[in-house]
Specification:
The chain is an alpha/beta fold. The chain contains 20 helices and 17 strands. The protein has helices at 42-45, 47-57, 84-94, 124-134, 160-166, 198-210, 224-228, 240-252, 258-261, 276-280, 290-293, 309-313, 316-321, 364-372, 376-380, 393-397, 405-425, 440-452, 457-473, 481-491; strands at residues 2-14, 17-28, 33-37, 66-72, 106-108, 111-112, 118-119, 137-141, 154-157, 171-172, 214-217, 267-268, 298-301, 323-328, 331-336, 340-345, 384-387. The strands form 5 sheets. A 5-stranded parallel sheet has the order 12-13-16-11-17. It has a 4-stranded mixed sheet with strand order 1-2-4-3. α17 (405-425) packs across α19, α18 (440-452) packs parallel to α20 and α19 packs across α20. The longest helix has 21 residues, at 405-425. The termini are far apart.
Length: 499
């Protein structure tokens, strides 16, 4: 005999998308106990003990009857501890301990502590977007991640006891919801702190203006990491759509999103021991990898030749498509991965091949083998190749400030603005990144360079894309031979197969 029943709306995260789940609770006669059905994972099965303890700590009673919780749709695997709160509310509503109206017109997500407090869970922002799509209020923990949505009603629940006293999810959160976002973004590093390296700064400016990948090769201590860590400081701030996309990926991965909401682009710096799943995504449940956490930002791979070859080749497809599709037995999951690759490597095992001050101790086969670890196909997909030399001690100790991030960013923004204007003016013409769109002189020059350096078709296309960016920085509607020459100079280098 059914004593009571209730249905509460919850949600489960699948990739970066959220699927609404109807949490159906039935309390009926039978042996006391709680069964959870509907393909729950281990974390949801453990909710039985958390819910029991939380209800008792909040002053409610746990019914001594059979409780069945069904998570619908039943064919979809559910993951995470965010079902604690809707399960608890479903039990309370089914037994008449709270008003069943709580369960209507709201999506609940939250983990329960044993004393009845509501804890935040991963994917809160993605769940809020789902609630907005369904036209529901969104109820989460008071200290959840910020939710930068103005068109959904956000409600905070600190604990089951507090909600019972005040008749529901009492606190209406501010527009951004959750924790307050710091008014000041994380302080960015400045290129002015880098002595010398003006050619390298020019390459970084080109890369930021056109979204090109960049590879640095140089000995230890030459400043490769110092340069790469300052790349976000010259990139334009995230626009609202980019901010939301990047924040959702970090939210489902349980990564902080405050800096992203403040407009700062992601900067990911995985260690060279990272696995393929760690870099492109995977695990159970599926979690976004570093290429997705760098979405709309920078992925910096230091010591590139030290990464496993299979791991490096795994990022080739995301570099081309801007997304990662992971195929599992229960279907496909797609993560966004539109990132800018910045990589750095030593030229040889000892690190001093080509150094002007220290002699390399490696043999030629060792040098070739070390550089070939990166792989030609990946190298071919990186637009700018840069040799970074060590700065002399006297130049470092003089502490003269070089070109600053503000100066470089000004050029980046001007180039992007010009590119937008040019695209609107040339919509009817031949795509200006193709060789057919070049004037006769630049076209002949490009063909001569391609033949001289045995460039592949991809290398030619990417060289022209860099030349187009250089032309935009010069506010030139046409790609000139000088622009191609600079692009080729950054494309071709010795000793690493840089065709």
């Amino acid at each position: 005999m059914v004593r009571g029943q209730c249905a509460v709306t919850g949600a489960t995260v699948r990739g970066v998308e959220v699927v609404p789940v109807r949490v159906e609770v039935v309390v009926s006669g039978g042996l006391p106990g709680m069964a959870i059905v509907g393909m729950p994972d281990a974390a949801i099965q453990e909710a039985r003990e958390r819910v029991r303890a939380a209800l008792r700590a909040a002053g409610f009673s746990m019914p001594g009857e059979k409780i069945v919780v069904n998570l619908a749709p039943s064919h979809l695997r559910k993951t995470g501890s965010g079902f604690d709160l809707p399960i608890a509310l479903g039990i309370l509503a089914a037994t008449g301990q709270i008003d069943p109206a709580w369960a209507r017109d709201a999506l609940y997500v939250g983990e329960l502590s044993l004393d009845g407090r509501v804890r935040p869970v991963a994917g809160t922002l993605a769940c809020a977007i789902c609630a907005r799509r369904l036209g529901l209020d969104f109820v989460c923990a008071a200290d959840s991640d910020p939710v930068p949505l103005d068109d959904v009603r956000l409600l905070a629940m600190t604990s089951l006891a507090q909600a019972a006293r005040e008749g529901g999810a009492a606190a209406v959160l501010p527009a951004h919801g959750g924790r307050a976002v710091s008014a000041a973004a994380v302080e960015a590093l400045d290129f002015a702190e880098v002595a010398g390296h003006e050619t390298a700064k020019r390459a970084f400016q080109i890369a930021a203006a056109g979204g090109h990948g960049l590879l640095m090769m140089g000995p230890p201590g030459s400043g490769k990491t110092m340069l790469a860590s300052r790349m976000p400081s010259i990139m334009p701030p995230l626009c609202p759509d980019e901010m939301l996309e990047a924040a959702v990926v970090h939210s489902v991965a349980a990564e902080p999103i405050d800096a992203i909401i403040a407009g700062q682009r992601p900067f990911r710096h995985p260690h060279h021991s990272a696995t393929l799943a760690g870099l492109v995504g995977g695990g159970s449940p599926l979690r976004p990898g570093e290429v997705s956490l760098a979405h709309h930002g920078v992925l910096f791979l230091d010591e590139l030749a030290e990464f496993k070859s299979s791991v490096l080749q795994g990022i080739r497809q995301p570099m081309e498509s801007g997304s990662v599709m992971l195929t599992r037995a229960d279907g496909n999951v797609t993560f966004p991965a539109r990132f800018m690759l910045v990589a750095a490597s030593n030229p040889c095992p000892c690190g001093y091949f080509g150094d002007e001050e220290r002699e390399c101790t490696c043999t030629v086969p060792q040098i070739r083998g070390y550089q070939n670890r990166i792989g030609g196909p990946l190298i071919d997909r990186i637009d700018l190749h840069l040799d970074v030399r060590r700065i002399r001690p006297a130049e470092i100790l003089e502490r003269r400030r070089g070109t600053s991030s503000a100066q470089l960013r000004e050029g980046v923004m001007a180039a992007r603005d010009f590119a937008s204007w040019r695209a609107s003016q040339m919509a009817e013409k031949e795509p200006d990144g193709s060789i057919e769109a070049l004037a006769d002189g630049p076209r002949r020059f490009m063909i001569a360079q391609a033949e001289l350096h045995a460039m592949s078709g991809r290398a030619i296309t990417r060289t022209l894309a860099v030349a187009r960016t250089i032309a935009d920085m010069a506010e030139s509607q046409e790609i000139e031979s000088a622009h191609i020459a600079e692009a080729v100079n950054f494309r071709v280098r010795d000793g690493i197969g840089g065709k």
